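Below is the data:
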Amino acid sequence: MTDDHVMILRTIEDFMRSKYIVSIEQIARKTNKSREYISKLIDELHSKHLIWAPKGREKGFTLNFNGLDTLALIALSRRGILSFIGSKIGIGKEAEIYVGMTSEKNVVAVKFYRIGSPSMKKYVRFRDEVITHPSYLEASKRTAAKEIEALKILSLNNVPSPLPISRNRHVIVTSLIEGDPLPKIKKLERPVRIFESIINSIEMALEAGVIHCDLSAYNVLLKNNDEIVIIDWPQWVRPTHRMAERYLVRDLSNIIDFFVKRHHLIINRDKYFEVLTNKLREYRKR
């Protein structure tokens, strides 16, 4: 891929901030290149499945996730953040996670957000702004930005979560966490200690100004040393959010229900609800 190919992808991306489909003529005018030359590059990008023409070639082109991936990876590579992308190690409704390596030979996690129609409703629900022209690519960029913002806050306040390294567009790079989600572990040696660690982490995040909003046992990884790490923070809200208390109680309920049903703990849930909702109200008084 040449610099001119990258220039075309970036030009289409720039236009997509205000319109969905970009014509060859618009790209030619923006780049000061001939229509014939732009058409040739467009054909090459189209053949590599980095762009597509949803309404036919004559109407114009738009980026797809392959094209957005290419731009993000080129930027991260040029900044020395990434030198290698390895195998896929995780997949969900909103993202795919790969193992990667930095220019300094550090192994990292590389998360590609891919907001699509199944997850767009969830995306909209946790945003206050009105989305009049929902673009899956733009939503993926905003979601990545949202999660890296949370991870920066959490890391500064020692909340056990992946350490943020970098973001470009819809891709975030974090420390690689080696651990298993709690539901995949048949027996916990010290379930009470692990439960209390999760509750303490929720409280620490709250005091730092972050509520997870989508917390379940699947978002809690247990490392070999029995330390926990809480992952997947893109839906987070601040304690001042109008629905913060509801989301906080739901997060708590999910964790309590898991430990009661799976590990048969006897938990006074009202006590935990009262402590943490009081913490929430105290935060709002600051």
About this structure: The two ends are 53 Å apart (CA to CA). Confidence is low (pLDDT under 50) at residues 128-134. The longest helix spans residues 136-156. The chain is about 45% helix and 15% strand.
